[in-house]
């Protein structure tokens, strides 16, 4: 009965989510934009440098992205944030063998310094990302191992030659990090963009006052005629979440693009009523539990399976979503995206079944068989309260119910990954967050340690590596789905190398004056602000 | 007549009856009622901590999602927290953490400070100069800053937390004890002990330390309140004991802040527990100081 009720509930929630997403999309398409006004938004982090090619934090994307374009972007009206769309490239073709991608660039696009953007700039930017010169950091170099060469045969054509065909390549080029820089500047000084701004984007740079704000103003010569709608924007660097909420509550800020907690959402909604619109979506971020297989007894897969079988993810989702930024029960892909596991298939994996009592009985049996009855260990967690702390409290309680005693050790955020990299833990919380939901990007983390240093389980699994390669090279979507499913079954069920907790849930309560912005599963997307408009004038 | 006189002589020569501990306690209660109230709360707190498994209505670690954020009522007298855990049970168990950390840090800090203070006063000269300059350096850091630095260096396990809280207490106690020990050092019995050839350790530990017990006890009780507050502060900042351990400071952070408007009981009751404990220790400490300090002694 409980199972049936949960299935029904899941069905109703999914249907409601679909209706909400479609309704939001339609509303976005129907309303007529107005011009003017300054968008004000708090940013909880500050850019370490201005160069997105080398940085990892949304603290760069949120204030700086409106100054730039990419070759491609993700369709700003797509709620899944997975559909590549033209940006500086207006069209493209793919060779029949899938090894050559040819892009036609827009003509007449100008950098903010007045120089025209050509294929030379695109090639120089991608060469910096894929083949960075000595002394230049490129954070995403590893994601472009498939690229053999980037060519610029004429001023408005760019060609990417690949080593092997891959269906994820267009998505890789739509990355919000791959801003197009001026080739001449890069040739003179590849570090220039770390401290300066010169893009082709919808907003011109005005000022950056460290620790205070970042200001941009409308680019009157923007190539996409009629855009942007805003006169400008102002990003306020505010670390305290209470101060961010207060800024929105006091109508001194319109929106915060990363996300608020359920309690913040409820507080804002109660205080401002219809003046606040709440956008919610599954978040392409996931907290995972990683047992250190170098340490006994976590090398034994029966113990790892027991730990995942103990988790009542469905009840956890229902309760934790009231107090933390987590919600969806998911496998290796965000629910609702192209390669996500259907709920029926997900329920067949260890720890995802609907009968928690049977699962926990099996967990106790496995622990007994493995000689790990009365197991106790230290759970190493990251010193970031939300959502690490509530998820850890829930995990410890779940494990207690199969007789496992767990003590939590919280490591300060900056030192946390050093602890993981050195393997100085029994079982730890691990984390993955992406700019788009794409198996190539999302599954790489779980390949063998020898291939991938961010595998903190310290395991070698050639079968998993082989499945990763197969899904990556599959050109047929259905065939690729099968490989992704097989990968997921081995990772989460057969070997239980990692234990997924709950998908993050993105909550953006924003001023109802803000229009033309679509929430997606990634807080790295839709920050160019070219489609955003306000229903009235400036806030101050 | 003769018989009467004999009795009178016997009564006059009888030694004064020695005061028992009960008399001392009753006298303390009568002369210092506020201190007695403080002491009663401290005793109650100790009893609650010792009998926590018997008196707590729920398991303090047991999550009950059906009762999340329940307001105070018949089932949960002080309500529940964001995980459905009973607030009263967590406060009861939290007293164990407060007392273990509080007593641990206060006792170790005061004792180490007392030994250093007496040693410094006894040796005098260059030893005293060097020890006191070190104490000056340590004492120049605010209590919480030094404790934060220590936790950051050592990590936030329970023993490390006690060590971190002990460090800022040592110099404070050493300075106070040293000033008392300086006058004790000049006493004839210390000179006599020296003349008898006793070792430095014996003179310090057996002859000087017992004679500075009054300031020691005062420092100990005042540190107890401070230690409980410091533990709560560190836990509130996420550097003290960790979830799901029941601890008062921990109960004030995270969801208690987020839900302060809709579920104020989550922060209110642990906050009251901290205030009450610190208030009780301070009342008791102040009265103890008054009772033991001859300059302040009345009646």
TrEMBL record, chain A:
Q: Which GO terms describe its cellular component?
A: ATP-binding cassette (ABC) transporter complex; outer membrane-bounded periplasmic space
GO BP, sorted A to Z: peptide transport
PANTHER family for the chain: D,D-DIPEPTIDE-BINDING PERIPLASMIC PROTEIN DDPA-RELATED, PERIPLASMIC BINDING COMPONENT OF ABC TRANSPORTER
Q: List each copy of the Solute-binding protein family domain by range.
A: 83-451
Chief location category: periplasm
Gene Ontology MF, one: peptide transmembrane transporter activity
Tell me the organism: Vineibacter terrae
Q: Where does it live in the cell?
A: Periplasm
Q: Which residue positions does the secretion signal occupy?
A: 1-29
Keyword set, alphabetical order: Signal
Matching SUPFAM superfamilies, A to Z?
Periplasmic binding protein-like II
For this entry, the protein name equals ABC transporter substrate-binding protein
Q: Which family does it belong to?
A: Belongs to the bacterial solute-binding protein 5 family.
From TrEMBL, chain B:
On whether Thylakoid is a keyword of this UniProt record, the answer is no
Pfam families per the UniProt record, alphabetical: BPD_transp_1, OppC_N
Q: What residue ranges are annotated as transmembrane? A: 34-56, 98-122, 134-155, 216-242, 262-285
Q: How does it sit in the membrane?
A: Multi-pass membrane protein
The record's PANTHER family line, in alphabetical order, gives: D,D-DIPEPTIDE TRANSPORT SYSTEM PERMEASE PROTEIN DDPC-RELATED (PTHR43386:SF1), OLIGOPEPTIDE TRANSPORT SYSTEM PERMEASE PROTEIN APPC (PTHR43386)
| Cellular localization per UniProt | Cell membrane
Superkingdom in the source lineage: Bacteria
Picking any one GO biological process from the record gives: transmembrane transport
Family assignment from sequence similarity: Belongs to the binding-protein-dependent transport system permease family.
Q: What is this protein called?
A: ABC transporter permease
